[in-house]
Design goal:
Blueprint: E1 4-8, H1 17-30, E2 35-39, H2 45-56, E3 64-68, H3 73-82, E4 87-91, H4 97-106, E5 109-114, H5 118-123, H6 125-133, E6 138-142, H7 151-161, H8 175-182, H9 187-190, H10 195-211
Parallel strand pairs: 1-4, 1-5, 2-3, 2-4, 5-6
Length: 214
Amino acid sequence: MSAKAVTIAQQKGGAGKTTIAAQLAVTYARAGMRVGLLDIDPQGSLAAWYDIRKALVDDTGGGITFVQASGWRLSTELERLKRDVDLVLIDSPPHAETEVRIAVRAADLILVPMQPSPMDLWATGPTLEMARKEKSPALMVFNRTPSRGKLVDAVRRKIADAEVPVAASVLGNRVAFAASMMEGKGVLESNPRHTATKEIKALADEIAAKLGLG
């Protein structure tokens, strides 16, 4: 059976796509899944993290297969990767419509991270419109969320008007996520009892349920 694919997309830079891709990959791999990471962002941040992971954690990537691709190679590499894993997570660039459209079209779910701010909310428009045109289901997730304040509820109400599903799981604005990335790890590995670990596991479970993954 071909693997499921999740594209993490957001037109606004700095939304935390790469961090979420890496953290989800580690979480699923530690749960026993064969995970593929496909990096189509020319910035290469995910590749840098994976290089650290191979050097410091596990030279096989700890159950994570990593591939970089762009342009005409993207579809071919994605199909090849899907034959060898259970789940593919695609880290997309903020501004590269051709590559992002291919990744959105190929995905079983589009994960759209956003900080609870008006700027991020407005920036989701092009990504959500692309998902609609490609008939790909989207799920928005709050990332780098402050521990206090009513802004999340206000933004949730605005999103509800657009009839776009929002993940029940929320990722807080936690240093633990970035600290684990510096070590080539996920927070599940570096700090298994941290609140950040509970948050990423909850999001991973929510995504798995939507995809019908056991």
